[in-house]
Amino acid sequence: MHAESRAQFPPFGWTPLFLAVGGSWLLYYWTQICRRPRLVSSGPLRQFLESHCPVVMENFCPTFWCHGGRLQTIVRVMLTSKPHISYRNEVIGTDDDGQISLDWIDNDESTHFPDSASRPTIILLPGLTGNSQQSYILYLVSQARSDGYRCVVFNNRGFGGEKLLTHRTFCASNTEDLSRVVSHVHSCLPAAPLVAVGVSMGGMLLLNYLAATGDGSQLCAALVFSTLWNVFVSTSSLEQPLNYRLFNRSLVITLRDTVNKFRDIIGKVLDVDYILQSRSIREFDERYTSVVFGYSSCDEYYRNASPHNKLQKIKTPVLCLNAADDPFSPSEALPMDEASSHPYVALLVPAHGGHIGFLEGLFPHHQRYMNRVFSQFVGAALLQQEELRNITGKGLKN
Questions:
Q1: Pairing mode, if any, of strands 150-155 and 99-105?
Q2: From the CB of residue 218, how many other CB atoms can be counted at a distance below 10 Å?
Q3: Which of 142, 200, 217, 290 is catalytic?
Q4: Is pLDDT at 300 greater than 50 in this prediction?
Q5: Which of 103, 147, 285, 326 is catalytic?
Q6: What is the four-CA torsion angle of 355, 200, 323, 214, rounded to 10 degrees?
Q7: Cβ–Cβ < 8 Å for 128, 329
Q8: Out of 342, 355, 366, 375, which one is annotated catalytic?
Q9: What is residue 146's three-state secondary structure?
Q10: Would you place residue 3 in the very low, low, confident or very high pLDDT band (cuts 50, 70, 90)?
Q11: What gap in Å lies between CA 229 and CA 200, rounded to an integer?
Q12: How far apart are CA 292 and CA 305, in angstroms?
């Protein structure tokens, strides 16, 4: 009798449950995760971007199994491959007897811009502790080369393989080295339009340069990825327990290692052992960065380094890509109101993407989304210069 009952009521199968859960997740993913990024800009600049940069109108569909901000940030480092790039290195001096390492891709085989003298040049600024060998830089260089441009990567002092000649490395608020690089590239290639691209802290430095130079900028356009807009908000986020363990601690270890590597020169001015006891980026900035660059406190340095209150000084067209779930730069730090009426600044804000993540596809080995934004915006700025001039009142400069 018991056996007969079991025959009448077959056991419940797991397949329907899996299908139901999977179907619900896919429905949620396509309706709630794959969304069009928010584009915040003034009317004319917004129309320009929508006309010439289709990527701003497309849904961004992050890798479904790692769409969250922290996962996007971590998986990018773990899975993204590195294209092979062979640079030509140049070291230039600075007014304080330091030196800067520049890595060039001349792209003399360019068919889009065969004239070397007028070939557009892209200046790339890596993030904190980064250099020309970071995967995100290598992919941007590879894309720029495919588009026919020349590239030069500005390595911060101490991070490009060159010897540190002074106790000073870099900080996000001091634009002297970037000004030196821009002037040098412009003097070498006076007929070539210049566009700059900054990533993370490189974006902060670039925005601060644009604000400091105003109408005097030698750049025709700029693009920043995952920049930190308000350092106080970013510091608070990175000091949360989980973010500290995932990001803050590893970054400060790299910073400490750099100081220790050059302790002979840094130790002539500062207490290296005290700096090496830093347990967070803020402690490192308190003991090293703010001191070296003459600030009375770390808070003063952070106020001066934050680009969010300098937008009104920027007079160069710039597109800023920031994910709303970036653990380094939370959405509340983004200057939405200021950008909404700014004639030169536009924010592109996907709901997901993390910090320099923006991973797409089932196996996200490549940096496709950032490359599309780069290729379309830079191409529009260079090829639609008359329209851009009419919109912003500022055309390309040689």
A1: antiparallel
A2: 19
A3: 200
A4: yes
A5: 326
A6: 180
A7: no
A8: 355
A9: helix
A10: very low
A11: 10
A12: 14
Q: With left for phi above 0 and alpha for psi between -120 and 50, is residue 148 left, alpha or beta?
A: left
pLDDT tens digits for 324-372? 999 999 999 999 999 999 999 999 999 999 999 999 998 888 889 999 9
Distance from C-alpha of 311 to C-alpha of 304, rounded to nearest angstrom: 13
pLDDT higher at 393 or 308: 308
User: In residues, how long is the chain?
Assistant: 398
DSSP string of 168-233?
Answer: ----SS--HHHHHHHHHHHHH-TTS-EEEEEETHHHHHHHHHHHHHGGG---SEEEEES--S-HHH
Would you say residue 118 has pLDDT above 60? yes
Any catalytic annotation for residue 200?
A: yes
Note if 215 is an active site residue: no
**Rounded mean pLDDT, 296-302:** 98
365, with CB counted inside 10 A (0-12, 13-18, 19+), is: exposed
Phi, psi at 90, each rounded to 5°: -140, 135
355 is catalytic: yes
Instruction: Read off the pLDDT of each residue in 173-202 and give the average, rounded to a whole number.
Output: 98
The closest of 194, 193, 167, 192 to 179, measured between CA atoms, is 194
Tens-digit pLDDT profile for residues 92-113: 999 999 999 999 999 999 999 9
Q: In terms of Cα–Cα distance, which of 382, 365, 367 is closest to 148?
A: 382
pLDDT in tens, 31-71: 889 999 999 999 899 999 999 999 999 999 999 999 999 99
Q: Helix, strand, coil % (nearest 5) of the chain?
A: 50, 15, 40
The first and second tokens of residue 183, run together, are 């002037």
Residue 307 in tokens: 């680009």
